[in-house]
Amino acid sequence: MMQIWQTQRQYKLGDTDMAFPEAIVRPNNRESIQAVYYKNSAVSSRILAFLDFIQPRLTL
Predict the structure, then answer these.
(1) Checking phi first, is residue 3 left (phi over 0); if not, alpha (psi -120 to 50) or beta?
(2) Any residues with CB less than 8 A from the CB of 37 and at least 6 apart, and which?
């Protein structure tokens, strides 16, 4: 399975179909966001600024 935004172009062109279209609820305030970074590597100031910005806005 892939996120809708990853396959939107192929879907619009008719190259792919949705498996469970009735399962998509829009608007969805719980879209999946994943961020991966390694603690032992340097993180750019741009990424740190984004993480500082987004952290208080995320809820589980």
Answers:
(1) beta
(2) 43, 47
